[in-house]
Write a structure and sequence with these properties.
Number of domains: 1
CATH topology: TIM Barrel
Shape: globular
Distance between the termini: 13 Å
CATH architecture: Alpha-Beta Barrel
Helix content: 40-55%
Strand content: 15-25%
Strand order of the largest sheet: 1-2-3-4-5-6-7-8
Number of strands: 8
Length: about 250
């Protein structure tokens, strides 16, 4: 069954809008785990506009006490490795976002970035951390990701989310399916994330083979405003089960 890792960045973004610890990021993460989420994801950025380094440490203590996975995302060229060395998460997802980017909006360009990434990946893996690369659904790029040392790829799913329910849906899903198959042939594990929600998730999982983990933040936290965190996580776990049974 695909695992659900809850990204709590948007909780931290709301908290940071006032000089108070409301909402409390650790408490929300605890609720998500209480509801059955199998991991927590954070994406600290250089300007600390949402997740702060103190959050990284606090959440590390929580996930270790629960025995669940901790996934830290970020660009390795922006003082990110210092955070990784201190936290030693289970998984490090490398993302090519610029320091001022509102959100991640593309995967790595292997032709341009491979040789810069190779030593970074080696450093992280030497710490005993699994490395996932944030990638577009580009089947030929999967083998290159493996060649430079990645253990997994996280398929960037915003193009699928935009195509969902449109005439382009099937063609887009076909591309993701081919990328996943290429990743599997290359010996890579497959994660997925970005703009997945409880409506489009079942179809994606039933159409794209071998997805081990989905990392979901924006949609899940938005749904939690309406349904509450515990009920929302239950809805997403149900969507994952639906995708696995179709």
């Amino acid at each position: 069954m695909t695992r659900l890792s809850v990204n709590v960045n948007k909780v931290a973004l709301l908290r940071n809008s006032r000089p108070l610890d409301i909402p409390n990021v650790e408490h929300v993460a605890r609720l998500a785990l209480d509801a059955g989420a199998q991991g927590i994801t954070v994406h600290p950025r250089p300007d600390a506009r949402h997740i702060r380094q103190t959050d990284v440490v606090t959440l590390l203590q929580l996930v270790r006490s629960r025995g669940v996975e901790y996934n830290i995302e970020g660009n390795p060229f922006h003082q990110f490795l210092d955070i990784v060395r201190r936290a030693l998460p289970d998984q490090c997802t490398l993302v090519p976002d610029a320091p001022g980017a509102a959100t991640s909006d593309h995967g790595w360009n292997q032709a341009r970035d491979a040789e810069r990434l190779r030593p970074m990946i080696a450093q992280i893996k030497a710490l005993g951390i699994r490395v996932s690369l944030f990638m577009n659904a580009d089947p030929p790029a999967m083998a290159m990701a493996r060649d430079i040392g990645a253990d997994r790829v996280e398929l960037y799913t915003e193009p699928y989310a935009r195509a969902f329910g449109t005439v382009g849906q099937e063609a887009t899903l076909s591309l993701y399916r081919k990328a996943a198959e290429a990743a599997t042939r290359s010996g890579l594990g497959i994660n997925a994330g970005h703009d997945l929600n409880r409506n489009n998730l079942p179809l994606f999982l039933s159409s794209v083979p071998g997805v081990l983990e989905v990392s979901i933040g924006h949609a899940l936290i938005s749904d939690a405003i309406e349904f509450g965190m515990i009920s929302t996580v239950a809805l997403y776990l149900a969507a994952i089960r639906q995708g696995g049974s179709t």
